[in-house]
Design goal:
single chain; alpha+beta; 2 domains; 12% strand; transmembrane; membrane
Length: 231
């Protein structure tokens, strides 16, 4: 089934940010020092301005907001780096890295040859994007899936990409989110939602063999969501 973003409460938002902090800290030795520096620096600057330039103490209020923003920026950057590194070489990585992006309806494993050779589908304002994983044989599967959904999508653009670290791949799995966001906007949100529902009703092509996405990718996906929610 296609997955769309779900609304989060403030409490659940804090929980997912906490998950991202824990996930990143366990894998990135530089995370805590950089996070501490980002949060403390605004207060150091404001303190210097208050002491030496006679600035008002009210500037500390601004420092709080700047510190929070800086902390989130560092968390986003370091979490993204760790998640990308964890995803390389893992089955289902392309799906894990785009699941939760605002404006996209993502469906994993719409077609598959094995647990490592599969096609995922994303529908957004760019149109329909088919992402293949698993090497050269998957490129043929991409073509088959594009042909299968042609009667449903009509004139809507359908992009196909083979992602991975091999020479025959279009780009690395670590670039998948960036590439997706750079695609031109060809349809509006209403049309995209309509197409996503029709494709969901169409079902899958060659069913993906049963088996979970590796634990490390699932953990990374949860951490990634913390940074993507609300964007």
């Amino acid at each position: 089934m296609a997955k769309q973003q779900e609304k989060e409460t403030f409490g659940s938002r804090l929980k997912t940010i906490g998950m991202a902090i824990k996930f990143t800290n366990q894998r990135d030795k530089l995370f805590l020092p950089l996070e501490a520096a980002a949060i403390l620096l605004p207060f150091v600057i404001v303190t210097a301005l208050v002491v030496f330039a006679r600035f008002s103490l009210l500037w500390y209020i601004s420092a709080v907001f700047v510190a929070l923003l800086a902390g989130l920026v560092v968390l986003n950057m370091r979490t993204s780096k760790v998640v990308n590194q964890e995803a390389v070489g893992k089955p289902g990585a392309a799906y894990a890295l785009i699941d939760g992006i605002r404006g996209w309806t993502v469906t994993p494993g719409v077609a598959a040859l094995s647990e490592t050779q599969m096609v995922h589908r994303a529908v957004g304002k760019a149109g329909v994007v088919l992402l293949g994983e698993g090497g050269g044989k998957t490129r043929k599967l991409l073509g088959q899936e594009k042909k299968r959904i042609a009667r449903v999508v009509g004139s809507t653009p359908v992009y196909t990409f083979l992602v991975g670290e091999g020479q025959g791949d279009d780009f690395s799995v670590t670039e998948v989110r960036k590439r997706l966001m750079k695609l031109p906007k060809n349809i509006d949100s209403k049309t995209a939602n309509h197409i996503a529902k029709r494709l969901d009703a169409l079902g899958v092509g060659m069913a993906i063999p049963k088996g979970p996405i590796p634990t490390s990718v699932n953990q990374g996906r949860a951490a990634r969501r913390a940074m993507l929610r609300g964007r």
